[in-house]
Amino acid sequence: MNQKVLLLVGVAALAYMGLFRITGSEVRSETEIDITRGTVEPSPIAVTNFHANDPSALVLGAEISTVIAANLESSGLFRPIDQGAFQQKPEELQQIPRFVDWRQINAEFLVSGMVEVGPDNLVSVEFRLWNVVSEQYMVGKRLKTPKANWRRVAHLISDELYTRVTGEGGYFDTRIVYVAESGPPDNRVKQLALMDQDGENHRYLTDGRHMALTPRFSPTLQEITYLSYFNDKPRVYIYNIDTGKQEVLGDFPGMTFAPRFSPDGNQVIMSMARYGNSDIYVMDLHTRVVEKLTDHPAIETAPSFSPDGQQVTFESDRSGKQQIYVMEAVPGAEPKRITYGSGKYATPVWSPRGDWIAFTNIYRGVFYIGVMRPDGTGERKLAKGFLVEGPTWAPNGRLLMFYQQERPTGQGSGDVGLYSVDILGTNLRKVMTPMNASDPAWSPLIP
Amino acid sequence: MQSKLLTLVGILLIVAGCETAIEETIESGGEGAASTVAGTDVVGADTRSSIVESGNVGTAEVAAVDPVMSFQEKLVQQAGDRVFFDFDKAVVRSDGEETLRMQATFLKHNPGLTMTIAGHCDERGTREYNLALGERRANAARNYLISLGISPGRLSTISYGKERPIVLGHNEAAWAQNRVGVSQVD
User: Fold this and answer.
1) Which of A140, A166, A192 finishes a domain?
2) CATH assignment at residue A377
3) B158 contacts in A (CB within 8 Å)?
4) CATH number of the domain that A88 lies in?
5) Cβ–Cβ below 8 Å for B165 and A185
6) A306 at B interface, C-beta within 8 A
7) pLDDT tens per residue across span B64-111
8) Chain B residue whose CA is closest to A406
9) Taking the model in full, what pTM does it have?
10) Residue among B10, B157, B122 at smallest CA distance from B73
């Protein structure tokens, strides 16, 4: 397991950093970029190549710098400055920067770093973030890891930088599981694929012989729950990323689908169809005891827990068409409808921070992705298209990913791909995948 | 168009003196068979003029045509395998009732058969809801067959939601064809 070998050696800022005001909460409470309001002009940031004393480590230092710059750029909050404009060399940055040089190229922030390759191919990576305008040291750490693990170090550093500047949790050290699609619409191959959030380390988890849909990460383990049509029996499965092993979840007489883990990872909530009617069930993964949460002749599906595990949001057509409801996570509790806008509301997903519920809205043949407060107020549309569907939250609750199908022409499918957007509706970006892609699920920060 | 082609194949088989094909038509029996025979008869009446001879058929080609119809082909021919539904609905319409009555007759005439009904939806809904809706549709068709006296144990269902469209295309005509329960002899 990757996380075991990743040694977070230092929160240790180096000795001379004591010259600056680096201690604790006082500095941390300062938010340099407020991303909670309106459109933010990306801040110019100089990400220098991490310096090293031997040539092979120099290459690694440049690669780490590239990954960090790409992460920060993708957030829409930073604009990495072309390295060609840099005056000061990486080796000169192992002491206090000449801020005047960086102000000259309009950098607001400066990232410097150092890489050392030790015995047993262990690398030690340290970084520092500087505020060029106020000439302040902001944060710095040293991380040690096997060399092969360098990308995760770059992502962890990116998260540190992002968090220090925005005051929000990071999301770069995460992965995406999704459904890779290929072939004609009536015989489409749908298989699970896994990649880092920046598209690297891409691999397929299933081979496509059995249709796979709606994968979702466990919040605590390297596991995914999803719907597989194995042997033409659509059932919820649990797939272990580390071992590649999977198991069908329970022994249900009807189709089980729309699975999602509880926030503590101990339960899976899902729909089961019995005699054509879909209700919502919760299975305890340890005791395998199943509870039926809803009991209604309407379609009840797409359940999602609140982060405290006390409530469940789901969709039901009990009013005549798809709407979103919230109920206590107790069998027989009375669901409360929260959507009264135009059209149908579907696929509710509770934000990991608890403050929003993301949804899909269908109105007059157009699909929308949006967010609303758990009481149904504050509705905001973030994206729209011929078909947009299936939002998933980044672990910091500031971004969503979803999938979009382009309006098809003729008999083809119309390209299907992943997009991310922040909860203000800005920074809409296509997420590159080798094949067509749907049903993304964002992992928690990798443990 | 397709029925004309089928008819044409039928004629060619007859012309070639393929006895098994003729036997097959007779032995299939029941209401469905009557319509089959009627369909063949029609050829003589008014479609012959529309048939264009396009060349000679060798025996090798005739042999390549499997003269034995599968049960699924018989189901399609004698009853129809598709029951259509209205948008976002899972109520069997009167045209669907008609199809299902013929399916029930077919199943009664072939008591050894079991059947799976696959529920489908058009692409204009969300994935998970459509899985549930497809399941509802398949069960609506199944329940109607059960009400006509078919043993529940002979009928299973599966939902494909919007994942396996029956008809390609992205307009109302295609979507209407994809709001469907498709019966498949196991």
Assistant:
1) A166
2) 2.120.10.30
3) 232-234, 255
4) 3.40.50.10070
5) yes
6) no
7) 445 689 999 999 999 999 999 999 999 999 999 999 999 999 999 999
8) B170
9) 0.84
10) B10
